[in-house]
Specification:
This protein is α/β, with parallel strands linked by helices. The chain has seven helices and 21 strands. The protein has a seven-stranded mixed beta sheet. A six-stranded mixed beta sheet has the order 1-2-3-4-5-6. A six-stranded parallel beta sheet has the order 16-15-17-14-18-19. Strand 11 and strand 12 form a beta hairpin. The longest helix is centred in the middle third of the chain and has 17 residues. The protein is globular and about 65 Å long. The C terminus is likely disordered. The structure holds zinc ion.
Length: about 350
C-alpha cells in the first residue's frame, strides 16, 4: 500500500488539493477553483477569486452567468505554475471545453478527470486516459449494470425514430439536457437532413457553441429556436429538442401527435422513461460507462485511484476488489432528474 502521491480532501465547498490550496469543481465560490466543465453541478465555483478552466468552459460559464471576474484560462498547450506545481489540461470528452486537470508536482503526476467520456464526438474533443500516479475519476455510471450500446448505432436509431415520427405527420419530442447533449443531437439530426427546433435554454447554448467554432445549423435555418407562437401549431414539422424538465408543461402536455423520446444514459433505467411519459429511450450518454471507466483506470496506470461523483463508494470497492488501491471522495448527491447533471 503506497497511498496517493497527492492527497485529495473533501472540504466545505467540495474537493480540495491541500498543497495547492485549489478546489476542484466546488459547489460555490472559493478562493481558487478549477472548473472542469460548464455543467451546473460542476460550475458552482464560477464566482471564485481565481477560476481556472479551458477557454471554452469559461466562455460557456459566461454565457450562463455573465462576466467571470476571476477567469484564468488555461490554454490546451499551456502550463501554469501554482505553488510549485504545474497545472495543465487535456480533453475529457463529455461536452465542449470539458477538461481533465493534470498536476505535475514533486512526487509525480495527479489527474482529475471531471466528467469524462472516451471516444470521438462531433461537438467536442475526444477524451482519453492520461498516464499518472494518482487518478481522481468520476464514477457517475460506476456500476456494472451501466453498459452503453454502440454510440453511432444509437444515434442512427434515434435519427430513424425521429424521421419515422415526422413521416407519420407527428412531432418527435427529444428530451435531452440543454448543455452538451442537445448540441450533439442537433448536430447529428441536422447532418441527417432533419429540421430541428430547440427549446430556448438549449438554443442559447447552441449559439454559444457556434460562437466557439462548432457549427450546428443556425445559419442555414436548419436549427431554430422554439417560439411561443409555435404553441398554436398542431404539427411542428421538425424535431423538438427540449430539456426533460419541460415534460408536463403546456409546451408538450396534451398536444396531439407529440411523441417523446428520452436520450440519456439514465434511460437504461425504465422508470426514467416512464417518468417523462416518453415512448422510447436512447442510451446515449456523455459519460463513460462502467467498462470505459475501468479501461480508463487501467490505461492511466495509476497506482492510487480516487472515485468522485455518482457512485464513488461502490466503484472504489470494485477497484479494490481488482487489486487497485482506491478511496471514494463523496461530494454531494447527484439528482438524476436535474437537467444539468449529466
Ligand atoms: Zn457534466
Amino acid at each position: 500500500m503506497s497511498g496517493p502521491t497527492l492527497p485529495l480532501e473533501v472540504r466545505p465547498g467540495g474537493l480540495h488539493l491541500p498543497g495547492l490550496e485549489l478546489f476542484l469543481d466546488p459547489e460555490r465560490a472559493v478562493p481558487a477553483a478549477f472548473v472542469s466543465h460548464a455543467h451546473g453541478d460542476h460550475g458552482g465555483g464560477w464566482g471564485s477569486g481565481v477560476v481556472y478552466g479551458s477557454r471554452e468552459t469559461l466562455a460557456l460559464l459566461e454565457a450562463r452567468h455573465g462576466a467571470i471576474v476571476g477567469a484564468r484560462v488555461i490554454d490546451w498547450d499551456e502550463k501554469v505554475d501554482v505553488r510549485g506545481a504545474q497545472l495543465s489540461i487535456a480533453p475529457a470528452g463529455h461536452i465542449l471545453g470539458a477538461a481533465q486537470l493534470v498536476v505535475e508536482h514533486a512526487r509525480g503526476r495527479f489527474v482529475y478527470t471531471g466528467d469524462y467520456r472516451t471516444g470521438p464526438g462531433a461537438t467536442h474533443a475526444e477524451g482519453a486516459p492520461i498516464e499518472c500516479d494518482t487518478l481522481a475519476i468520476e464514477s457517475t455510471f460506476g456500476l456494472p449494470m451501466f453498459s452503453f450500446p454502440d454510440r453511432e448505432e444509437t444515434m442512427a436509431a434515434l435519427v430513424a425514430w425521429c424521421r419515422g415520427v415526422l413521416e407519420a405527420g407527428d412531432t418527435p419530442v427529444v428530451y435531452a439536457y440543454a448543455l452538451g447533449k442537445s448540441q450533439a443531437l442537433a448536430h447529428a439530426l441536422v447532418a441527417a437532413g432533419l429540421p430541428v427546433i430547440a427549446h430556448g435554454a438549449a438554443f442559447k447554448i447552441c449559439q454559444a457553441y457556434e460562437a466557439l467554432g462548432v457549427p450546428l445549423g443556425i445559419a442555414s435555418g436548419a436549427l431554430r429556436a422554439y417560439a411561443e407562437e409555435k404553441k398554436k401549431k398542431k404539427v411542428l414539422g421538425a424535431v423538438l429538442l427540449t430539456p426533460p424538465r419541460t415534460a408536463g408543461t403546456p409546451m408538450i402536455k396534451g398536444r396531439k401527435g407529440f411523441r417523446a423520446a428520452y436520450v440519456s444514459g439514465w434511460s437504461l433505467i425504465d422508470a426514467s422513461i416512464e417518468r417523462l411519459r416518453a415512448e422510447i429511450g436512447f442510451a446515449l450518454s456523455d459519460h463513460a460507462d462502467f467498462d470505459d471507466l475501468l479501461e480508463t483506470v487501467r490505461g492511466s496506470r495509476a497506482r492510487f485511484v480516487y472515485a468522485t461523483h455518482g457512485e464513488p463508494t461502490v466503484f472504489s470497492r470494485i477497484l479494490r476488489e481488482q487489486g487497485i488501491e482506491s478511496e471514494p471522495r463523496e461530494v454531494r448527491a447527484i439528482d438524476a432528474a436535474e437537467d444539468a447533471v449529466e
